[in-house]
Amino acid sequence: MSTRVFYRSTLTAFALMIIALGAVMFPTNAFARHRHDDDSKRGNDSSRARTESSKDHHGSRPAGYVAPVYRDGAYHYSVRPSYKPMHYGHWVFNHYDSSFDHRSTYFYFGIFPYMETARIHILPYVTVTYINRPIHIHGNGYYLSKGSDTPLGNALSDIRKAWLDGRADLVKNHVDSHQQIAVLLDGKYDYSVDGTDYTDMTTDAISQLHTISFTWLEVRERTDGDYTAFGKHVFQDDSSHNKTVYVSYTLKRIGHDFMIVEVGSSEKDVR
User: Fold this and answer.
1) Same domain for 88 and 33?
2) Fewest Cβ atoms closer than 10 Å to its Cβ: which of 102, 120, 241, 260?
3) What confidence score (pLDDT) does residue 259 get?
4) Residue 238, pLDDT score
5) For residue 31, what is the enclosing H or E element?
């Protein structure tokens, strides 16, 4: 065999060996790339799942917050296992950040201290004055000088009975679901909520709270034609201790009835 033939044979054998090695190595590399792509995809999907689970339709949730579970037509809060199933799905029981939670209208009652900030509306608020017109106390409620059986007297009686008798429907009868309700804390405007939010929150509060007494202290007519009733609400807290919160309800005449347009609460009498 000549040197040239031997050299050509050697090159051919070497080339075949390279091709054979490539055939073995290529699938391995392809599989490695495929596995890496799958792992990356799974990692991205897992990260996306964690991100989605940490959000609701309002935006990011803070670390540690546990959302309620909607089941059988009600919201169940695992952080309050002793509470009854609820109508409102935006309660927050610990203060995380003002961008996420805000004091609720029942803050001073203790049982439902916060709500999601995304549910509140900051609207223009005009402070009004009161008319010096006598509105007399009669028995368990109020009435104007012309008699107790008036739309205003009936509305105030319904609000009182709702808390004493556990009848949230009596409050709901005086809330326009399309009306924004102003919320005052310590006598000052804080924000407004949708009528439907207010009725759901109030339904939960009436259901969960054990009211001892509810007394109207004074009713005052405002220059805008609305009426504000000031009351004293005594109830038992979670520790079975009696606690007092001073409340106010402002009612506007709409048609033949009076509807709630403003509510307030404070640990002090702010009249």
Assistant:
1) no
2) 241
3) 98
4) 82
5) helix 3-53
Whole-structure pTM value = 0.76
Q: Which pLDDT score is estimated for 81? A: 94
| pLDDT confidence of residue 23 | 45
> Which residues contact residue 10 at a Cβ distance below 8 angstroms, ignoring those fewer than 6 apart?
none
Q: How far is the first Cα of the chain from the last one, in angstroms, to the nearest whole number?
A: 119
Is 110 in contact with 83 (CB distance < 8 Å)?
no
Residues 159 and 245 in one domain: yes
Cα–Cα distance measured from residue 204 to residue 61, given in angstroms and rounded to the nearest whole number: 23
Distance CA 265, CA 107 (A): 8
| Cβ 180 vs Cβ 122: under 8 Å | no
Task: Return the H-helix or E-strand segment holding 171.
Answer: helix 168-172
Q: How far apart are CA 118 and CA 100, in angstroms?
A: 7
Same domain, 139 and 208: yes
- Whether residue 209 is contained in a domain is answered as yes
- Rounded Cα gap, residues 80 and 103, in angstroms: 18
d(CA 7, CA 5): 5
Rounded Cα distance between 103 and 115, Å, is 6
Divide the 271 residues of the chain into consecutive groups of 10 and give the mean pLDDT of each group: 44 47 44 41 38 43 95 97 96 96 98 97 94 70 51 94 97 96 98 98 97 95 95 92 97 96 97 91
Pairing of strands 257-266, 180-185: parallel
State how far the Cα of 80 lies from the Cα of 86, in Å rounded to an integer.
11
Task: Answer left, alpha or beta for residue 73, where phi above 0 means left and psi between -120 and 50 means alpha.
Answer: left
Distances from the Cα of 133 to the Cα of 145, 160, 218, 256, angstroms: 10, 23, 12, 22
Q: Give the residues across from 265 on adjacent strands.
A: 185, 247
Cβ burial of 4 (10 Å; 0-12, 13-18, 19+) is exposed
